[in-house]
Design brief:
- By secondary structure, the protein is mainly α.
- About 55% of the residues lie in helices and about 0% in strands.
- It has four helices and no strands.
- The mean pLDDT is about 85.
Amino acid sequence: MTWAAQQKIILRFIQLGKPQQNAYIERYNRTVRYDGLGQHLFKSLDELQNYATRWQWFYNHERPNMALNGYTPMQHRQRTI
């Protein structure tokens, strides 16, 4: 929490055992863990950051999302503008 305070980030916690209070984030976190982070061992924070940046681009531009009728988030965004 010291890092967050140094970055002026306010942490707000959900009630213990109540992931439905933050369902969208919980779902995204699960996807990140299972599709990416859980399959690699990183040697440094820079390596992790590089991987996370590339994975986020893949998630938004190439990975179909069934909640968006099979469109990627960017395709969906383009359709709704």
